[in-house]
């Protein structure tokens, strides 16, 4: 989201995300779904979703990588999605199938 008023940019963006999240929660409840949240700073892209290795050297420019421990090839976004699901299920003490 591009916000032109730099003095209010963070506040405007926060309100936008807050409103979106409230609508999302409403829709989820309406359809009997559950929304699971994780922390904003969880290292979802830097952790191997297969073995749990933490790749501390990875920068934002890296789009895919191979885990030095287990050898699994990861697409950054797919790996992050898998880890986000794991973090959310773990936080809620749920098991993913």
UniProtKB/TrEMBL annotation:
Pfam families: Cas12f1-like_TNB. Keywords: DNA-binding. InterPro entries: Cas12f1-like_TNB (IPR010095). Residues 17-84 form the Cas12f1-like TNB domain. GO terms for molecular function: DNA binding. This is Transposase.
């Amino acid at each position: 989201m591009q916000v032109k008023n730099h003095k209010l940019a963070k506040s405007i963006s926060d309100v936008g995300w807050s409103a979106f999240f409230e609508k999302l929660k409403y829709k989820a409840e309406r359809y009997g779904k559950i929304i699971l949240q994780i922390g904003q700073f969880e290292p979802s892209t830097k952790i191997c979703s297969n073995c749990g290795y933490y790749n501390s050297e990875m920068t934002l420019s890296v789009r895919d990588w191979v885990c030095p421990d287990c050898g699994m090839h990861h697409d950054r976004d797919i790996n992050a999605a898998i880890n986000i699901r794991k973090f959310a299920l773990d936080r809620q003490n749920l098991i993913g199938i």
